[in-house]
Amino acid sequence: MRSLVPACLVVLVTMTTPAAAGEDEEILVAMLHDFLANSAASAAHETFWADDLVYTSSSGERFGKADILQGFGTDDDATADEPAAVVYSGEDVDVRVYDDMAIVTFKLVGSPSDGSEVLYYYNTGTFVKRNGEWRAVAWQATKIPATTTD
Question: Model pTM?
Fold first, then answer.
C-alpha cells in the first residue's frame, strides 16, 4: 500500500501538469496581447510589470517599473483621446512555462500611426507567478535591423 501512494501521486502530477502549463501559456499569451494593445495607458504597465522589474531596452538602457510609470506623468486622461504614436502587436509568440516561472519570446511589431517605417524588435520576457498572478520581472528588447534587398 505504501508503494502505491507515491506511484499514484506521480500519475496525478503527470496528468495535471501539462493542463496547468497549457492554461498558463494561454494566460500569458492573452496578457501579452492585451498589454500590447493597451500599452499607451499606464494602467497596462501597472499590471504587467513586477515591482522589481529589470528592463533592458534596445538602446542598452536599463531601468525598472517605477521609471516606466514615471514616463506617463500623472494624467492618462490627457492622452486618452489622442491616437497612440505607435501601435504595437506581437508575432511568433513562444511561451515556455517552468512551474512558477515562464519565458515569453516574440517579435514586437511597432506600426507608427503616421505611416512611417514599421519597427521590429525581438523581445524576451521572464515572468514569475506570485500569489497566483503572472508579472514580468525581466525584459530584454533587441531592435531587428532593417534588411536591404538588392
Answer: 0.79
In the chain the beta strands, taken as DSSP E runs, fall at: 49-56, 62-63, 86-98, 101-112, 119-130, 133-143
β-sheet bridge partners, residue 141: 123
The β-bridge relationship of strands 86-98 and 49-56 is: unpaired
Q: What is d(CA 128, CA 60) in angstroms, rounded to the nearest whole number?
A: 23
Domains and CATH numbers, the chain: 4-143 (3.10.450.50)
Q: What is the 3-state secondary structure (H, E, C) of 51-67?
A: EEEEEECCCCCEECHHH
- pLDDT averaged per 10 residues in sequence order, the chain, 150 residues: 42 45 93 95 96 97 96 62 84 97 97 92 98 97 76
8 A C-beta contact, residue 103 and residue 124: yes
CA 113 distance to own-chain centroid: 22
Number of helices and strands in the chain (H, E) = 4, 6
